[in-house]
Amino acid sequence: MTAKTAYDAVVLAGGAAKRLGGADKPAVSVGGRALLDRVLGVCRDAGRTVVVGGRRPTARPVVWAREAPPGSGPLAALDAGVRQCEAPAVLVLSADLPFLGRTTVRRLISALDEGVSEAVLLTDADGRDQPLVAVYRTEPLRRELALLATEHGTLSGLPLRLLAQELDLARIGADPLASFDCDTWEDVSAARARIREHGNVLDEWITAVKDELGVELDVDTRVLLDLARDAAHGVARPAAPLTTFLVGYAAARSGGGPEAVAEAARKAVALAARWAEETEQTEETEETGGPAGPGSPGAGTAGAGSPGSAADRSRDADRTGEAEAG
After folding, report:
1. 66 near 53, Cβ under 8 Å?
2. Cα–Cα–Cα angle for 71, 72, 73, rounded to 5 degrees
3. At what angle do helices 221-234 and 239-253 cross, to 10 degrees?
4. What is the DSSP string of 211-254?
5. What confidence score (pLDDT) does residue 1 get?
6. For residue 111, what are the CA distances in angstroms to 117, 119, 133, 138, 212?
7. Which residues in the chain show pLDDT less than 50?
8. What is the C-alpha to C-alpha distance for residues 207 and 212, in angstroms, rounded to an integer?
9. Per-residue pLDDT tens for 143-161?
10. Which terminus of the chain is more exposed, N or C, with fewer CB under 10 A?
C-alpha cells in the first residue's frame, strides 16, 4: 500500500504523566525499547518527524519542538509541532502507543488519499475517536488551530475534542490494540506481558534488534528461520547462528535489500541440504558396510521421499538455479 499524499509526523511527547507518578513516560521501556522509540518506528515513511517535548536520545533523527509554556496541553503542543511541518498532510500520534503498527498508519494515509475529508481518525474498540492516532490535511489543521486560538485567546489548556468538532472527519477502525496507550503502571505491565507472549515475542524481538542496530530492512523471517533449522539439523547446532550471520553479511555486500537476503538464504539452504544428504549417505554406508554412491541401491534415499526433506530441498534449489541460469 503506497501513499499518494506526502506527509510529516508530529509525535506529542510532553505531559505530566500524573498517573505514572510523574515518570518520564516517553522513556518508559516496553519490550526493551522506549515508548517514544516504538512510536517513531512507525513514522519511517514520514518526510520529517517532529517530536513535541523535552529533548532526549532517540533511535531515529527527529525535529524537536516545544509548546509555550511547556505543559500547556495537547492543542498547544500540536500547534507547536505543525509549525515545523511542510508536507500537505500531518500524521499525529501520542508517544505512548506500544502496539501501533505501520499497517494502521498506512491505512490512515490511504483513507485520506482516497477521500475528500480534512482528517481521518482511528476509532477504538468502543467506537471512540482517537485524535492522537490520526492524519490531518495540513492547511485545514492550521486553520482550525488558528481559529481556536483567536476564539479562546489561547490554546493552553483547551481539550483536544474542540479541534475534531470543527473538521470534516472520516474514521477507520483497526486492531483494538493499535490505540492502546500506557497511562498507568498497570497499562505498562500489561503491554510488557503481551509482548512476551509466545505469538508476539519473536516479531517484537526482531523489530527491537533492527531498531537498536539502525537496520531498516523488512525480510521474510520464515526464510531465515528455515535456514537456521536446516543448518542446525544438517550440519550442527552452532551452524545455525553463524550461517544466518554470514547470509546477512553476504546480502549486505551484494547491495542489501530483501531480495539479496532471499538469494543468499536460498544458496545456503541448498548447501545445507547437500551437506545433509551426504551425511545420510555416509551413515547408510557405515550401517551397511558397502558403498552408497549415486548408483547404489538406496543411496541417498533416507528421507528423500518425505515432503520437505533435505534432499528434496537440494534438488529444488538446484533446479531453481538452473532455471535462473537459463
Report:
1. yes
2. 95
3. 130
4. HHHT------HHHHHHHHHHHHHHT-TTHHHHHHHHHHHHHHHT
5. 46
6. 9, 9, 13, 15, 32
7. 1, 292, 294-326
8. 9
9. 999 999 999 999 999 999 9
10. C
